[in-house]
Design goal:
Length: 278
C-alpha cells in the first residue's frame, strides 16, 4: 500500500471492503499513510463506523496544523493521533493487532544510505515510532531517530513497496495505489535542491532520493503495470483522479474519497477472488 497523504482515505475504503468480506493476507506492506491504514486493517478496525469517526477529526488542529509545527517541529500531531485518538476516541485494539498472524512491515527511508528500511511488528510499541517515521515528510516533520537510524517518510526511497514484497519471495500481490491509472509524476522535484541542501546537507543520499523521487515513482508504477499484465498482481487504484493536496482536511471531501475506495474495490471483488484462488 502506497501513501499519498490524505489520499490514503482511498486505501481505507479498499481495506473496509477487505474487512467486511473477511479477505486477509499473510503479510501487509505499508508506506507512509499506507502504514497507518495497515494498523487498522490488521486489528480488524477498518470499518465504516471507525472511519466515520476518524474523518471527523481531520480538520482538528491537533491532527494537522501550523500550530503543531511551531510547537514541535512537525505539522502532524503524532502524539495526539497515537495518544488520545488511539486510546480514547477510537481505541486501537493492540491485543488483536499484535496477536494477529498477519505480518506487517512499515517502510521508512534511512537518511544515511538513502535506502528503504522496513520494520515489523517486533519493532513496534504503543507509541508506534516506526509509523511516525514512515509518515514524516521533509520540511514539515522532524527526523525520527530509532534504533540508531535517522529516518523519514518511506515514500522517498520506495514509494510503492512492491519491490520489498518481491524481495521477500511473494510472487503474487494485491497492490493498493492512490493515483489513477494514467497518472505519472512530473520530473520536477517537489523540493528544490538549494532548500534540500540547506536543511539536509549532512544527508546527501536522502537529498538524492528526494530529487530522483519522480523517476523512481514512475518506474514503480511501470513495474506494477508489468506485473498486472503478467497475471502476477492486481492493482486497485482510483477510477478517477483524486485532486487534493497531501494535507487536505475537509471531512466531506475525504469521506467521498473513502467511498470511492469502497466502490472501486467492490467492483473488483470477483477479479480479486479469482486471483486469490488461482
Amino acid at each position: 500500500m502506497e501513501g499519498g497523504g490524505m489520499r490514503g482515505w482511498y486505501t481505507a475504503g479498499v481495506l473496509s471492503v477487505f474487512t467486511n468480506n473477511k479477505i486477509t493476507f499473510p503479510v501487509v506492506y505499508g508506506i507512509s499513510a499506507g502504514s497507518i491504514n495497515a494498523l487498522s486493517y490488521i486489528s480488524g478496525q477498518s470499518t465504516e463506523e471507525s472511519i466515520r469517526v476518524l474523518i471527523k477529526y481531520t480538520d482538528d488542529k491537533r491532527v494537522l496544523s501550523t500550530e503543531n509545527f511551531d510547537k514541535t517541529g512537525s505539522a502532524f500531531g503524532f502524539d495526539f493521533m497515537f495518544g488520545e485518538m488511539f486510546h480514547k476516541i477510537t481505541p486501537f485494539d493492540y491485543k488483536k493487532f499484535f496477536e494477529s498472524p498477519v505480518r506487517m512491515e512499515a517502510g521508512t527511508t534511512d537518511m544515511e544510505t538513502g535506502k528503504a528500511k522496513f520494520f515489523g511488528k517486533e519493532d513496534m510499541d504503543d507509541s508506534f515510532t516506526v509509523i511516525r517515521a514512515s509518515c514524516s515528510l521533509p520540511m514539515i516533520s522532524n527526523i525520527v531517530h530509532f534504533k540508531g537510524y535517522n529516518l523519514m517518510d518511506g515514500g522517498y526511497s520506495q514509494p510503492i513497496p512492491i519491490e520489498r514484497s518481491i524481495e521477500e519471495g511473494n510472487g503474487r500481490n494485491i497492490i493498493v495505489l492512490t493515483r489513477e491509472a494514467s497518472y505519472r509524476k512530473s520530473m520536477k522535484p517537489e523540493i528544490d535542491s538549494p532548500t534540500l541542501h540547506k536543511n539536509y546537507g549532512e544527508y546527501p543520499a536522502f537529498i538524492k532520493d528526494v530529487l530522483h523521487r519522480p523517476q523512481v515513482y514512475n518506474n514503480e508504477l511501470k513495474l506494477c503495470a508489468d506485473l498486472e499484465k503478467a497475471g502476477r498482481a492486481i492493482a486497485i487504484r482510483p477510477s478517477q483522479p483524486i485532486k487534493i493536496g497531501r494535507c487536505e482536511n475537509n471531512p466531506e471531501i475525504l469521506w467521498k474519497i473513502y467511498q470511492l475506495g469502497i466502490r472501486d474495490c467492490t467492483a473488483l471483488l470477483p477479479k480479486i477472488y479469482a486471483f486469490l484462488k488461482a
